[in-house]
Amino acid sequence: KVGDHCSILTLPVRMHSLQVDSVQRWMEDLRHMTEVECMCVLQAKPIGVEEDTQGELIVATGDHVARNNLQTLLRRALVVSTELGKMFQRLEKGRWQRVHSTAVRANCHVRSLVHEYSTARNTPAEMQKYEKSLLEKCMELTTITERCLHTEDEFFLKSMREAIHEILTDVSDSFSHMIDMALANEIQILIRQIESSDSVYTIGSAISNLLSLTQDGPQLCRIIAKEGAVVALFKICRQDCFSDLYAHALRTVASICCVEEGINQLEKVDGILCLADILTDGNSAEAARAEAAAVVAQITSPHHTSTQHLGSFLESMQDIVTALIKLCESASCGEVFLLASAALANITFFDSMACEILLQLHAIHILLQSCKDRQRVDTPYSKDQVVTILANLSVLEQSSSEVLQEKGILLQLLGEKPSSSSPSEGAACERVQQKAAVTLARLSRDPDVAQTAIQLQAVPRLIELCRSPAERNNSDSVLVACLAALRRLAAGCPDSIEAADHQQLIKPRLVDSFLLCSNMEESFV
């Protein structure tokens, strides 16, 4: 199989991101920063807040209540975590004045957060215990750091440093756990909205909030999965009355399934069968089928260490693979093609039966013809998926005849170059070149394919990629693949390689040719 595969996790950013003016962001953050002296005196009690507006930093009105709660909670948590991180650094340097002032600020922020959240929500009993313990530890931290300001006794300060470090570690762990519990509480509210509401608007808003949360990292995705979000989302996808929400729900499922906990939940509710139903249903909207393909790509990613869920996937593979190649053929835009082809690329990695199914469905013809259609294949990322599938299909002998019918398109992929200075696009072009060379090397075991490749000027392009580091973006993996392809072609048609090239690129050991080419200057060409 081809290594270094670009899974759905590294596809172009299609995730939701918050983009606001920098001044606006600063003003929003300022609302969550507390004036330390006032807070120390008033112990985090709100100043001049009317009864009906208490906890305004947590509570919002209208459709954005949950989102405001969650975003505020995350921002305040980030502020506290930053202060605790600074405190660890200053403690190591023995900057006691700053250690104490940071402890005071952290104490105030924690008290403010706890007070406001408790005002906005009926805090669960277990969480109240954590809050009380955390506040006591924060106060202890403030008191003990203050004692260090009034002495220069090195022995005393050393013993205090160890004690403070222990308390600080305890505070950090307790705070993280408390935030996780608060987030879980908020997530439960969103899931209850999805499960209990009949309103498409209300459910859609809750799903949007969950999707937004998934962008904040794997830890939040684990909490979301643990609270049962995947189960609730698949219930939506099994009800015809919510068909307009399928795409939105499945996009959220794909994001949650970046962690094993999400995939395990999907397996428990027979999510793969639901995905197969949506993909094979001719009445399903293209957007829903595209997002179902995204989920398939996510759960079949080679980056996942667990493959237990793939057992049930194999049962539906024929239907899923057939639906995905049809989606590639009929895709109305580049994103739909990208998602469907990424799912197919991942599937071809873990089961050879998928490759045989694709050959029966004339996938090589469909995919190579797609490369001519700028509406469907408009980026190196899509071509990366196509050439990954081709490389994995090329291990089957039957693939040679299909590639012969599509003369030249595979060789065009060897010439893939980035259209911008984007590092991710450059890396995608490298993968396209590498996998195109690997595919060519595998297919050239067939003399007819080798002869056709030589007639289409594959050898000069391979030599150019070997000798010119700039052509391959200084990629060693592209160099190795091109050397291997050249040697395969030379074995079948020795006369196709000139004597000088043969002497340097074919005759030596592969490692010697690699070292020679990898050290070449551009002026050599």
UniProtKB/TrEMBL annotation:
GO biological process terms on file: apical protein localization; asymmetric cell division; establishment of mitotic spindle orientation; regulation of asymmetric cell division
Coiled-coil zones: none
Protein's UniProt name: INSC spindle orientation adaptor protein
Organism: Oncorhynchus mykiss
Pfam families: Insc_C, INSC_LBD
Gene Ontology CC: apical cortex
Taxonomic lineage from the root: Eukaryota, Metazoa, Chordata, Craniata, Vertebrata
Cross-referenced SMART domains: ARM (SM00185)
Domain Protein inscuteable homologue LGN-binding per the UniProt entry, residue ranges: 18-62
Domain Protein inscuteable homologue C-terminal, first and last residues per copy: 76-525
Single GO term (MF): cytoskeletal anchor activity
